[in-house]
Protein: dITP/XTP pyrophosphatase
Amino acid sequence: MQELVLATGNKGKVVELEALLQPFGWNVRPQSAWHFAEAEETGLTFIENAILKARHAAQHTGLPALADDSGLAVNALQGAPGIYSARYAGPECNDQDNIEKLLDTLKDTAPEQRQASFHCVLAYLRHANDPTPIICHGRWDGMIATTPQGEQGFGYDPVFWIPELNCTAAQLSTAQKQQLSHRGQALRQFVKQLQASL
Ligand SMILES: O=c1nc[nH]c2c1ncn2[C@H]1C[C@H](O)[C@@H](COP(=O)(O)OP(=O)(O)OP(=O)(O)O)O1
Ligand SMILES: [Mg+2]
Structure:
């Protein structure tokens, strides 16, 4: 069975990534099974950070590694918080702090001006020195709600409004979110590309 380390410390991502990879018969192991410090996300793009995180995990485990660098880009904020989504409200902040900062920043932005997109870049390195990583990018368009709603998911899900469904991403099941989300799209591309490269 093919073994793979998920190069993320985010439990919400682990749930979503495992759900889509396990049916393909991989033995997927979260990096929390080891005890190394997280990679520093010093890149200026999702692509750079995803590669840094995957390389770091491959170095520490000796296994092929899949990393996810993702975030929210708000049109009215010229794409912010973008790659800084996890640290938007400060270095030690949590999801709720980030949501509060976002809603406060957008408090004078009219409902029809609140377009946003989630982005997910997956980077897969077969080993730490792999010169041809597989890189996939998924995007999900929506709006920023004015108040949080829903309990599912993680991160900015409670304020990511999906106009077609009249609900937020936090009101979808993992399976429903997977069909639409940036991460689901990137994962489906990844599975195809990996199978084509085997
Ligand atoms: O589906 C999503 N639903 C809601 N929020 C999301 C989603 N996908 C990414 N996000 C947010 C969470 C975090 O604020 C940032 C990712 O930051 P990012 O550095 O990639 O992840 P992280 O630090 O939580 O874990 P790690 O770097 O160990 O993978 O974007
Ligand atoms: Mg991170």
In short: The mean pLDDT is 96. Residues 3-197 form a domain with the Maf protein fold (CATH 3.90.950.10).
